[in-house]
Design a protein that fits this description.
Elements (H helix, E strand, L loop, with lengths): L7 E2 H7 L4 E4 L9 H14 L11 H9 L5 H11 L8 H16 L9 H10 L4 E4 L4 H11 L7 E3 L12 H10 L6 E5 L2 H9 L3 E5 L14 E3 L5 E2 L1
Parallel strand pairs: 1-8, 2-3, 2-5, 3-4, 5-6, 6-7
Helix pairs in contact: 2-5, 4-5
Length: about 240
């Protein structure tokens, strides 16, 4: 285990953070979706004649996409098109819909919950701690994951991209979720895997906790003291 990675009892963590509510990012926190999103981006780039290597995304495009994890498509797509010397123009919304439909097609029947998350969700229910999803993804992606995992009754609030104004690293997403869970930010833990998401949690006054699914633990310690490889590091 990396010296930058935490491991502790889940109840001890909840008590140490004075946690009364939890907000989860979705991709890379609740669900192991990275490969499917990258596959969808690769197909989108190829379909529209942008730079791509023989095996999918070129190094430059891949690096750019990884750097935008946690942000919304209306931020990511213009950056990709700009890198190729183009502009999405009025096609931005259609391109976003195309990419997310492709992601769901790639992930259907293949996507899995993040290791240990179901035990942690069960513990929250046992302790009467309400939970929310706070994601930059669209409503359709939230519904997709809930259906794939049979989690329809698990969360008390579902906050997707259409429900807040400014995307991460602005805290709007998490503030909406905390309000609906009826808890203040300083009593609410936000689990995130992305730098932009951790920045959003900090800016909103939340306790930020990192899941190191898309970054190495050492890369995330600048943004939080709580860094876990996955939810198995929070023993239930």
């Amino acid at each position: 285990m990396s010296e930058k990675e935490s491991r502790m009892q889940a109840l001890d963590f909840l008590r140490s953070t004075d946690c009364r509510a939890v907000v989860f990012d979705m991709d890379g926190v609740l669900a192991d979706t990275e490969e499917f999103h990258l596959e969808a981006w690769s197909r989108l780039v190829e379909a529209h004649g942008l730079e791509a290597g023989e095996q999918g995304l070129s190094g430059g495009m891949l690096e750019l996409i990884r750097s935008t994890f946690g942000q919304a498509n209306d931020t990511i797509i213009p950056l990709l098109w700009e890198k190729a010397g183009r502009s999405p123009g009025e096609e931005l919304a259609a391109l976003s819909l195309e990419k997310e439909q492709c992601y769901r097609n790639c992930a259907r029947g293949r996507v899995r919950p993040m290791p240990g998350i179901e035990d942690f969700l069960w513990l929250l229910k046992k302790e009467n701690i309400p939970a929310a999803i706070g994601t930059s993804g669209p409503e359709e992606n939230v519904s997709f994951i809930l259906e794939e995992f049979n989690w329809r009754s698990v969360f008390q609030s579902l906050v997707h991209r259409n429900r807040f104004k400014k995307g991460k690293p602005a805290p709007d997403c998490f503030l909406v979720a905390a309000e609906e869970l009826e808890q203040p930010p300083d009593k609410t833990v936000v689990f995130e895997d992305s730098v932009h998401g951790l920045m959003a949690a900090n800016r909103g006054g939340f306790t930020a906790a990192a899941i190191a699914s898309t970054h190495e633990p050492a890369e995330l310690t600048e943004y939080t003291d709580w860094v876990f490889r996955d939810f198995r590091s929070l023993s239930c």
